[in-house]
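User: I've been going back and forth on whether these two constructs are worth ordering. Before I decide, could you fold them both?

Assistant: Sure. I'll take them in the order you sent them. The first construct and its structure tokens:
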Amino acid sequence: MHISDGILPLVWCGIWYAVCIPFWIVGVREIRKRTKEDPKYLPTLAMIGAAVFVISVWHIPVPVTGSCSHPVGTPMAAIIVGPFATVVISSIALFFQAFLGHGGITTLGANTFSMGVVGTFTGYLTYILLKNRAPVWLSAGLAGFVGDIMTYVTSALELALGLNPHSVVYHWWLYFLGYGPTQIPIALAEFAFTAGVVSYIAENRPELLKVGVAHG
């Protein structure tokens, strides 16, 4: 997912930045509001932000795409602190990861959109749809799996749009196939750790889950 500088045309880098701006604005407002309502929210947000950084910095290079495969952690974060706040903390994580050789500054918008927006919201909505119909572990696990896979579906689309505008559908599929051998096992691992973390919190700190769901 970490698309590096120099991969996407600058015009597409600008487009993905522009797409992310509304999510950043709403996310910052949400964080300010929640912090005023509950002083404990900010330390929780910082802890989850650190977790997203650590989870998403583990990577496996994917030469076909000029990018890499890794877990994302944003579905788990969204369930706990809310999806819009997760967009903000994922952007911060991606910004600092760029200085570690993972991703880039020009592509920060594209990487935020795939991991921080699509990965977050598809995972979060999966959890919301299932939480009253399935056990917590299964709802959370599927949220992690769906958000992880959709992050890479989106990254593949970003690459196809930017690099192959005359054959987007074909190259979208080709790039996603490039991710597949490494990403599917990682998505299964994300199912497991998201299920485990959210189940543990549901049993021991259920009020944390209410924050994420109520303010999503």
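The second construct, handled the same way:
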Amino acid sequence: MSRAAENYLLSLAILQEDGVSPHVGQLALYLRRIPIEEEVGTTLASVSGMVQRMTKEGLVQVSREKQIVLTPEGHARARDVVRRHRLSERMLVDILDVPIERAESMAHQLEHAISAELLERIEHKLGFPETCPYGRPIYREGDQGIRGDAPGMLRLSEAKAGAKYVILRVPDEDFPLLCYLVENEILPGREVEIEDIASYRGVVDLHRDGTHVSLGMEVAARVRVRAA
């Protein structure tokens, strides 16, 4: 597959993990988060054209509601791309000591070139990790489907004031946002206490080890947590 097609499959898999079957416009908006070096077209015309090509190749279907859905073949190809991308992220962070905020964009440069044999060696060297540095699942050979939210997982925007939660997953596609999350240590495995869910202000206020942090409601909806 072309690099562009692999990036489309990666994006569709991530959106499906988040419970979204996107329209062309939603997919185009998401693709704009991919590093510009990947040369992924993000205009409505270019996205529509790629979706049509992927439909002919049996990778996606477009529903009557114009939602783009992965086919069984698309699922298999998408899991492979996601697996290469997330194991690349793990290798960059855990072995090569790349700062976590840079690993996501750098993984795009590696995912297209890693062979199946090399991928197995990387996975073995890493000790078969379950998640990427940002908390998303790493698929194994033979896995089926794309995983959604696990039982007990909820959006930070749905949390209750005064309660404590453990961060499970953070958004990794937006570099400035990721830098902010890293700087404030809002990362998988960290515990936070909710001070206020201020919907009228559009923010979630929380404490992390005594430090006050505010997140916009849209960002909080993309952070996954479980009760501490």
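Notes on the second construct follow. The mean pLDDT is 93. The longest strand covers residues 191-198.
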